[in-house]
UniProtKB/TrEMBL annotation:
MF (Gene Ontology): choline kinase activity; ethanolamine kinase activity
Protein name: Choline kinase 1
Coiled-coil stretches: 173-200
Upper lineage: Eukaryota, Viridiplantae, Streptophyta, Embryophyta, Tracheophyta
Source species of the chain: Linum tenue
GO annotations of cellular component type: cytoplasm
Length: 365
């Protein structure tokens, strides 16, 4: 991860952040006052922000006794992807729901958060059946949250906005390679073909990669973190996003490479969806499981387009050490590869009594 050159990593904090930390020191009363004594540890795997764990020594606490907190430095250009004020409002509301870390303070370049004493999941954890079932139940709980703001799905207009940004930033060569001239037609087509049914809408995380999921090893409680992209959306999109993230490992030697052969198979996807639907206490029918699974598969296309555009834009606006352009290339290549296998005659779109749309049965990788 690229480190900012403002001296932060050397313990020389920006003045606004110093004031936040000093205010916390006065509130807590048990931490040392010397800012140079703080241990600052970069946390790997973030692709939008830079995140640091801070170990704050306590007075008379003995060696190794610390308060811990998390400092998030906002990535450059992220306002193109989401509204930061909306994201902070979501963060605070989630905290009030008991769903995530508390907000401890804000400064212009970022914020200070409560450090959750839980383990961040690894890529391998997503494939563990027991852990996967816990994630499924947590997703259902998340989707059922009542959150402030519009409940209108903005996915398609957001993608059009991202496409406009990508066109304005791209070189002629990149625009041609990524076929930006035809992507608006693709977005319009997807909106028409896969979202015209009665798909259930819920409050979605929209970025449920393993690094945004934490587990308490003792209680097995799951916590979802980082709500930058959270909004009301089709729940099938959120499930599809999570399945796509099973093909990624952001802590490998090549974090930008997505191994689509690791996308979960039909049985694994249905097992997750079955756990998701049954977490409310009612056992779903097999038809309900299959119908939602089918809808999820088509929303995989929207995921590839969204994150492909995200990668293109990030290449031009974000300084984090990550090969955004290659990541975008893979997501958009996968879109074109699986599109013929997934898009079916729109006449098969229909709603069942639970609000899930049946969108065919063809399998896609």
């Amino acid at each position: 991860m690229a480190i900012k050159t403002n001296g932060f990593i050397d313990g020389i904090f920006p003045e606004e952040l110093k004031r936040v930390l000093q205010s916390l020191a006065m509130e807590w009363g048990d931490v040392v006052e010397d800012m140079k004594a703080l241990q600052v540890i970069p946390m790997k795997g973030a692709m939008t922000n830079e995140v640091y764990q801070v170990n704050w020594p306590t007075k008379g606490g003995g060696e190794g006794i610390h308060r811990k907190l998390l400092i998030r430095i906002y990535g450059e250009g992220v306002d193109l992807f989401f509204n930061r004020d909306d994201e902070v409002r979501t963060f605070e509301c989630m905290s009030n729901h008991g769903q995530g870390p508390r907000l401890l303070g804000r400064f212009p370049e970022g914020r200070v958060e409560e450090f959750i004493h839980a383990r961040t999941l690894s890529a391998a954890d997503l494939r563990d059946p027991e852990t996967s079932a816990l994630i499924a139940a947590k997703m259902r709980e998340f989707h059922n949250l009542e959150m402030p703001g519009s409940k209108t799905v903005s996915l398609w207009n957001k993608m059009r906005d991202l496409l406009g940004e990508a066109r304005s930033l791209c070189t002629v060569r990149d625009a041609k390679e990524f076929r930006l001239d035809v992507l608006e037609d693709e977005i319009n087509m997807l909106e028409k073909e896969i979202s015209k049914g009665c798909h259930q809408i819920g409050f979605c995380h929209n970025d449920l990669q393993y690094g945004n999921i934490m587990i308490d090893e003792e209680t097995k409680a799951i916590t979802l973190i980082d709500y930058e992209y959270a909004s009301y959306n089709h729940i099938a999109y959120d499930l599809a996003n999570h399945f796509c993230e099973m093909a990624a490992n952001y802590h490998s030697d090549t974090p930008h490479i997505v191994d689509f052969s690791k996308y979960p198979g039909h049985e694994e996807r249905c097992r997750f969806i079955r756990a998701y639907l049954s977490s409310s206490g009612d056992k779903p029918t097999e038809d309900e499981v299959l119908q939602l699974a089918q809808a999820v598969e088509n929303y995989k296309l929207a995921n590839h387009l969204f994150w492909g555009l995200w990668g293109i834009i990030s290449r031009y606006v974000n300084q984090i050490d990550f090969d955004y352009l290659e990541y975008a290339r893979q997501r958009l290549q996968q879109y074109w590869k699986i599109k013929p296998m997934l898009l079916l005659d729109s006449s098969v779109n229909s709603c069942d009594s639970n609000g899930y749309a049946g969108v065919g049965t063809r399998e896609g990788a």
